[in-house]
Amino acid sequence: MPKWKPSRVRQLSIAEAAWVGAMIEAEGTVWALRKTTRCVGISVGNTDVEIISTLLRFVGDGRVKMHAPGAGDLGRKTAWFWELTHDAAIRALAPQITPWMTVKGDRLIALL
Questions:
Q1: 14-111 falls under which CATH superfamily?
Q2: Could you report the per-residue pLDDT of 39-81, keeping only the tens digit for each?
Q3: Cβ contacts of 42-48, under 8 Å, gap ≥ 24
């Protein structure tokens, strides 16, 4: 079975693209792992699950993870993370959102 999978990234409206780009710029991370193969990823973390849910709904791809506070994390809230890591999806999303981004948009373009 091949590792490649097609992108499920939606064609975003201008308002959706601006919102997603702004969320990644403000709350997200654009990262790369370079070992034997190059892996680029985008992630956003927040304690408001509605923000993460909206990211998933607008983009149409990615995965959501939850990090519940442990016994030593008194006073901390549950954190939610949206993550997009497969190349086809990132390549489909990047041109739609980078016009609405600054530093992280430039980094995303450089990594692709």
A1: Homing endonucleases (3.10.28.10)
A2: 889 999 999 999 999 999 999 999 999 998 877 777 788 999 9
A3: 42/83, 42/84, 42/85, 42/90, 42/93, 42/108, 43/81, 43/82, 43/83, 43/84, 44/81, 44/82, 45/79, 45/80, 45/81, 46/79, 46/80, 47/77, 47/78, 47/79, 47/80, 48/80
